[in-house]
């Protein structure tokens, strides 16, 4: 079964991948090829994954007894490209 911890790891991975695809594939295609279709295609799933990441991070913070600074770093990582991978490697590996 999926625990909150495992669910967060999966959502963090998917959110990170969707953000990278959105920033480095869809947005350049939108502006260089004048084709906004990929931004529309990837935008909604990324938005849903982003919201799920934030909600699960807040829930997981109390379970793992993260300090406010740690939670702030985990939340800020969601808006930095490759940030969720950093969270996985730095904070989630330690929590296991």
SSE blueprint and pairings:
Blueprint: H1 4-32, H2 37-64, H3 68-76, H4 83-95
**Helix content, binned percent:** over 70%
Low-confidence stretches: none
E-strand count: 0
Order of helices and strands: HHHH
Largest beta-sheet characterization: none
- Could you tell me the mean pLDDT? 94
Number of helices: 4
Distance between the termini: 16 Å
Q: Tell me the overall shape.
A: elongated
State the secondary-structure class. Answer: mainly alpha
- Beta-strand residue fraction: under 5%
- Taken together, the total number of domains comes to 1
Radius of gyration: 15 Å
List the main descriptive attributes of the protein structure presented here.
elongated, single chain, mainly alpha, 96 residues
Give a quick precis of the structure.
This protein is mainly α.
Textual characterization of the structure:
- The protein has 96 residues and is an all-alpha fold.
- It has one domain.
- Helix content is 82%, strand content 0%.
- Helix 1 packs antiparallel against helix 4 and helix 3 packs antiparallel against helix 4.
């Amino acid at each position: 079964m999926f625990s909150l911890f495992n669910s967060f790891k999966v959502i963090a991975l998917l959110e990170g991948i969707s953000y990278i695809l959105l920033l480095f594939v869809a947005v350049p295609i939108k502006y260089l090829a004048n084709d906004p279709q990929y931004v529309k295609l990837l935008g909604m799933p990324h938005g849903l994954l982003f919201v799920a990441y934030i909600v699960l991070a807040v829930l997981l913070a109390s379970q793992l007894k993260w300090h406010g600074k740690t939670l702030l770093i985990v939340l800020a990582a969601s808006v930095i490209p490759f940030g969720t991978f950093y969270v996985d490697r730095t904070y989630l590996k330690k929590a296991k």
